[in-house]
Each structure stands twice: as C-alpha cells, then as structure tokens.
Design brief:
single chain, Rossmann fold, two-stranded antiparallel ribbon, 9 helices, 7 strands
Length: 226
C-alpha cells in the first residue's frame, strides 16, 4: 500500500461539488483505488445511505414537491444526515475505516445556504446537532463551470420520468429544475467554503477528462496526507 494511503485509516473524506462536476465518477474510482491498496472503505451517499435516509431522499428530489421551503429542505437533509452518522459513519470511523461520503454538510451550505438564502450560522447550528463530533477531515470540491456541467447533465440523463428542458440543458430532479442562476450561486458557495477554510478543503478543477482529474486528485491528496 502507498504510504500516504495508510494515513487515511480512520479518516472521513467528503467528495462534493455542483451537479455535473463529475464528483461521483471520481468518488467511485477513488474508493476502488483505496480498496485495491488494501484499505477498508465505507462508502455513503447523501441524502440517503440508510433505509430511513432513502425515504427522505425520495421526498427531497421529487419534482412533484415544488412548494417545499428551503428551511424544510435543510432540516430534512439534516435528519437524513443524523441517521447516517449514527448508524454508519461513526461506527466505521471507530473501526478505523476510511469513510468516503458523496456529499455532506458542504452541500447544504452551498445549495440551501449560498443558493437558497439560509445563513451559514443557521445551517451549522443544526449541523452540530446532526453530526455531533463526526465532521469531515477533508472535503474535496470538484469545481466545474456551468456550461460544462450542463453538457454533462444532458449526456448522463437516463431517467426520463421527470424531464424538463431548461435553457441549454436537461434537468431531472427538483433541485436541478431551479436553473442556471441557482447553479451559479451553488458553485460560488462551494468555492467560498474552500476560501474560508482552506485547511479543511481541497478544490480540484474537474473540467478535464476523468483520467486527468483522477491523476490530479491523487497527487493533491498525496500532498495533503504524505
């Protein structure tokens, strides 16, 4: 096992970024890379990751619920997160596994905070109750411009039960339906988090092809954990 990867035992890493950033592709590749290196990995996704959380996920992403307030939205995300931490994340960290999360509180700060109008203070106050001591050691933000993200969303749309043409792109869940200006605020929210706390964040330019992005990811993580 590469020496720097051994430093990830018992760590909590989050992969996050705007829709279309390619974060989930990199998440899957990195999880497999760590497993091949002999590291125990616990993968979780948000919202969801537990039976209760998956029920919340269906409500949150259902385009048939446009009247849901941003504050209600935030609280539902936190409820799913609280269950995920208690049931899965905290026990995995105690076992010394690497916990990899596809989204976490960073998403709430970007979507319901920077884009939705809730203050970071409100979100973090609820977040402290939801996650208690299980805060990420590092949040990797995959940054991408809106044009590239929109093109990727069009190319990856496979579920046509809820489809709406919105400008140059194709959106299929309730948050994606909010359009380009909303997505721009989301991106700015992520970048602001990294600017405010650079020691806890790592920004990866994800505009390039997946292989190049993955190589950059490994190099940057090695710099952090070597």
């Amino acid at each position: 096992m590469s020496r720097w990867i051994t430093q990830l035992r018992g760590k909590f890493l989050v992969f996050d970024g705007p829709d279309g950033s390619g974060k989930t592709t990199q998440f899957d590749r990195f999880a497999e890379h760590c497993r091949q290196a002999g590291l125990g990995v616990c993968e979780v996704r948000e919202p969801g990751g537990t039976a209760f959380g998956e029920q919340i996920r269906r409500i949150l992403l259902d385009p048939a619920s446009p009247e849901m307030s941003v504050r209600c939205e935030m609280m539902l995300y936190m409820a799913s997160r609280a269950q995920l931490v208690e049931q899965t994340i905290a026990p995995a960290l105690q076992r010394g596994e690497l916990v990899l999360a596809d989204r976490f509180i960073s998403s709430t700060l970007a979507y319901q905070g920077a884009a939705g109008g809730l203050s970071p203070e409100e979100i973090l106050a609820v977040g402290r109750i939801a996650v208690q001591s299980s805060w990420p050691d590092l949040t990797v933000i995959f940054d991408v411009d809106e044009t590239t993200a929109a093109r990727r969303l069009v190319g990856s749309a496979k579920d046509h039960r809820y489809i709406k043409v919105f400008g140059p792109t194709l959106f299929s869940d309730r948050l994606e339906l909010r359009g380009a200006e909303y997505q721009q605020r989301v991106r700015k929210g992520y970048l602001q988090q990294a600017k405010d706390a650079p020691q806890r964040h790592l920004v990866i330019d994800s505009r390039n092809d997946p292989d190049s992005v993955f190589e950059t990811l490994l190099n940057r993580l090695q710099e952090r954990f070597a």
